[in-house]
Request: fold
Amino acid sequence: MADSTHVLTATYTSPNDAAPRTFSRGLPPIPSDPSTNEKTAYLAALRNKVSELQADVNAYVTQKMEEDKKSAGDDVNDAALEANYGEENVDDDD
Reply:
């Protein structure tokens, strides 16, 4: 498996966009028969890539909210926009 290319991917779908937006980050190769140090390094790199991907998605959603806010004028508040885009529940796998 060490030669395989692995990619972490997230897809954001909005009722206001014609097509879903996909974000991705390349992952380091999974070491074959890894030592404890290699496992720890791989998991640290994976966690870093997840954080980077989350930052990309958050930046995109924030941009979309700002665009909607500008087009709606002063009539829309931030809580209504957040309800439209959904809450971020990173630890919720339901």
Strands lie at 6-12, 21-27. The CA atoms of residues 34 and 74 lie 56 Å apart. The two ends are 30 Å apart (CA to CA). The mean pLDDT is 81.
